[in-house]
Amino acid sequence: MGDEREAPLTPVAHASSPSAPQVEIVSAGNEVLLGDVVDTNSNWLCKHITGLGGQVRRTVMVRDEVEAIADELRAALQRRPQLIFTVGGLGPTQDDLTLQGVAAATGRPLELHPEAERMVRDKYAEFAAQGLVPFADMNEARRKMARLPAGATPLRNPIGGAPGVLLEVDATTIVSLPGVPEELYAIVSESLRDRLTAILGAGTYDERVLLVDTQDESALSDVLRAIQAEHPHVYVKSRAKRFATGDHKLRLTLSARGTTPAEVTALLQAPLDQLRNELTARGFRVTEEADAADT
Predict the structure, then answer these.
(1) Phi-psi label, residue 170: left if phi above 0, alpha if psi -120 to 50, beta otherwise
(2) Could you tell me whether strands 10-11 and 235-239 are parallel, antiparallel, or unpaired per DSSP bridges?
(3) What structural domains and CATH numbers belong to the chain?
(4) What letters, b where the CB count within 10 A reaches 16 and e where it falls short, cover 257-268?
(5) What is the separation of C-alpha 218 from the centre of its chain, rounded to a whole number of angstroms?
(6) What pLDDT digit, counting tens, does each position of 173-192 carry?
């Protein structure tokens, strides 16, 4: 049986998206770099932000070290994205150092935040009442999760003990999220929802997929490049599988961002029709992914 792993994504060209809010992600965790844990958080954030009309321009993974985190944040702040996420390192243990890195990068001291302390206290009282922790009282480890960079705002964590943290630095908003996936999803989807709308605006993203009966990307490259050049605000990419897998279809994706779904649909329709017609004229069988089951 053939190897069915997909070959790496092959971009044809990068569509210009000057109006899309720019986003970067800094993920901290020795366990990720050791290969013990897979970073599904960055993948989820990329999909979520893309769906809201933002554009993730960079993701990076670093060790749980204050200077490593701070160096990445300083560099990111110089690029002035609208939004930077940090992932992981908000917990009560000595290796949870992300907020120290944020403080170092922004030149702000860590301070005990009264509202964050209340959030942590209430959450541990709830955990104790459920029998999930042995005691409800605050200690220094728990209080550590309420020490935020000066000027930051805590974000309610509906699931875990560590609040998320929001800090505005000039035109950039830094959002620090815990590394436990369920906690990260809940903070972004609930506590951060309105703020994300304010940062990213009313943008929307969509894509269309064509399946072409070939494995040979090189046979289509001139067509794809011509389509990309004619429609610079649409991103065209191809994805091939390894030869001899038994799957002879090439997946072509056209994607775009805009202020409304109707605008994005209009941006995609012309290059989609043009690409389908050109490939059909060359003798390739082309189907849309929605009706691929009929092939």
Answers:
(1) left
(2) antiparallel
(3) 17-200 (3.40.980.10), 204-294 (3.30.70.360)
(4) bbeeeeebeebb
(5) 30
(6) 999 999 999 999 999 999 99
